[in-house]
Amino acid sequence: MNNENLFEIEEKFQPFLLNNDYTFIGPVDTLYLTEFYKYVNKIAPKIAISRLIHHSLSNKSAIKKAISILPQNIELRIYVVISNGKRDLIHTSIEDYCRRNNLNFLKK
Fold first, then answer.
1. CB burial class (10 A; 0-12, 13-18, 19+) of residue 53?
2. Are strands 91-93 and 76-81 parallel, antiparallel or unpaired?
3. Are strands 91-93 and 22-27 parallel, antiparallel or unpaired?
4. Cross-strand partners of 106
5. How far apart are CA 29 and CA 14, in angstroms?
6. How far is Cα 80 from Cα 101, in angstroms, rounded to an integer?
7. 23: part of which helix (H) or strand (E)?
8. Is 22 in contact with 58 (CB distance < 8 Å)?
9. Could you tell me if 57 and 37 are in contact, meaning their C-beta atoms sit under 8 angstroms apart?
10. Distance from C-alpha of 63 to C-alpha of 94, rounded to nearest angstrom
11. What is the pLDDT of residue 18?
12. 25: which residues sit within 8 A by CB, 6+ positions away?
């Protein structure tokens, strides 16, 4: 997937999400991903008393702002965060999520 149409693909994927799962777009490179989490968590608005990473990563405005400060040619991907009822952050690629859940979203 190229970076230019990721937001469009992410939007079209929303009806396929199960339970309380959600998506975010972030860098493929794990070295950038850790800093990306920190920055998104810092700029996203607080919800209630605390600021959970789940609230931050589901905030599309904060994600877009964080992406804008990444190096220009960095590869991005759509991540699917799998809700486990805890504060843990468990995510996978959209391709793997579709495969695991027998979703036909990516099949042409």
1. middle
2. antiparallel
3. unpaired
4. none
5. 24
6. 12
7. strand 22-27
8. yes
9. yes
10. 17
11. 92
12. 6, 7, 10, 63, 67, 76, 77, 78, 79
Q: Per residue in 27-43, pLDDT tens? A: 999 899 989 988 998 88
DSSP letter for each residue of 72-85: TT--EEEEEEPP-S
Decide: 93 and 79 in contact? Cβ < 8 Å.
yes
User: Which residue, among 33, 34, 14, has the nearest Cα to 23 in the 3D structure?
Assistant: 14
| Alpha carbons 106 and 94: distance in angstroms, whole number | 9
Average pLDDT over residues 7-24: 93
Determine the average pLDDT of the residues in 7-21: 93
Which token pair is 84? 């486990």
Band (75; pLDDT cuts 50, 70, 90):
very high
Whole-angstrom distance, CA of residue 61 vs CA of residue 67: 10
Residue with tokens 């609230």: 55
